[in-house]
Amino acid sequence: MMFWNRKKQNQPIQYEKPKPDDVRIAVHFTGIVQGVGFRVEMWRRANEMRLSGWVRNNLDGSVDANLQGNIKKIDTLLEQMQQIPRIQIERIDTQQIPLQDNGPFEMLNY
Questions:
Q1: Which residues does the annotation mark as catalytic?
Q2: Where do the domains of the chain lie, and which CATH numbers do they carry?
Q3: What are residue 75's phi and psi, to 5 degrees?
Q4: How far is Cα 84 from Cα 108, in angstroms, rounded to an integer?
Q5: Which residues neighbour 58 within 8 Å (Cβ) at sequence distance 6 or greater?
Q6: Tens digits of per-residue pLDDT, 29-49?
Q7: What positions constitute the catalytic site (predicted)?
Q8: In sequence order, which residues have a C-beta less than 8 Å from that of residue 90 and are 6 or more positions away?
Q9: Angle between the 71-82 and 38-48 helix axes, to the nearest 10 degrees?
Q10: Ramachandran angles phi, psi of 73, nearest 5°
Q11: Which tens digits make up the pLDDT trace of 99-109?
């Protein structure tokens, strides 16, 4: 077997510390936001935008997320989520919360 072309495994990913203009926003979504791929879409798009945080389903049918990064990127993500036809967001509540260390955007409760 040839092993010289294999990539090293388990190398830790380095994340930048929060920048001075970064924010962390707690977001609560209501509407038809479960069973429509909401968390997967948010996870994929947030990682493409290099945002940190998480998204999770709630027992009442709503979805919560924490989004951390540049506010323009967060606004863009929220706008994009509202444009997905199969997702019908009725309400978005937001609140700024303290920054945390950056890391990958995670999908919880899957």
A1: 39, 57
A2: 22-99 (3.30.70.100)
A3: -60, -40
A4: 21
A5: 64
A6: 999 999 999 999 999 999 999
A7: 39, 57
A8: 30, 31, 32
A9: 150
A10: -65, -40
A11: 998 889 999 98
